[in-house]
Amino acid sequence: MFSGIIEEMATIVAIKHEKENIHLTLTCSFVNELGIDQSISHNGVCLTVVCIEGECYTVTAMRETIERSNLGLLKVGDSVNVERSMIMNGRLDGHIVQGHVDETATCVEIKDANGSTYYTFEYPFNKAMAARGYFTVDKGSVTVNGVSLTVCQPTDNTFTVAIIPYTKENTNFKYISVGTIVNIEFDILGKYIARLQSIIK
């Protein structure tokens, strides 16, 4: 479980393909604090640490994860938003994030807002998925590349988020341009409500 508050950006130093899996080796400032089997969010995807060597650690993404996320597009040298799992006696500064990316979205517009920045993302509309809670609502929560954000101006297949300068500088939002593919996780509360409504109809 995560909060969507990014700790820092890790750098990919190696990528290994093995059958349908991808092994990503990364480096960041807290590698010496990690342990095998620990869960870390990478661009919003919860992955398990499988190896630690020196200043680097390795995680594995399976086919299901690769198909639903942008991890398969990553290259050596790319910066990845990382967050370690929540400590249950701490404050929930973002919102409840599972680390289970639902799908990808494409950045279709970026606007300056006198210091802050508005990003608009588009994803394929699927009526059946929307009925299961895969949608956004105005002032609701959404996770983009692991970052907890507030939705504005949602449509059936787009939403906009406003990024303050600190977030832009300290996450890989600084590298997003029109056409960039990002990971999105819809609000888990919306999914449960949608599921409940479908059951009690």
From TrEMBL:
Domain Lumazine-binding as annotated: residue spans: 1-95, 96-197
Enzyme Commission code(s) on record: 2.5.1.9
Keyword annotations: Repeat, Riboflavin biosynthesis, Transferase
One record GO biological process: riboflavin biosynthetic process
Top-level class of the enzyme under EC nomenclature: transferase
Pathway the protein contributes to: Cofactor biosynthesis; riboflavin biosynthesis; riboflavin from 2-hydroxy-3-oxobutyl phosphate and 5-amino-6-(D-ribitylamino)uracil: step 2/2
Enzymatic reactions: 2 6,7-dimethyl-8-(1-D-ribityl)lumazine + H(+) = 5-amino-6-(D-ribitylamino)uracil + riboflavin
Positions of Lumazine-binding repeats: 1-95, 96-197
Keyword Cell inner membrane: no
GO molecular function, one term: riboflavin synthase activity
Domain of life from the UniProt record: Bacteria
Entry-linked InterPro entries: ATP_synth_asu-like_sf (IPR023366), Lumazine-bd (IPR001783), Lumazine-bd_dom (IPR026017), Riboflavin_synthase-like_b-brl (IPR017938)
Its biological purpose: Catalyzes the dismutation of two molecules of 6,7-dimethyl-8-ribityllumazine, resulting in the formation of riboflavin and 5-amino-6-(D-ribitylamino)uracil.
Protein name, entry field: Riboflavin synthase
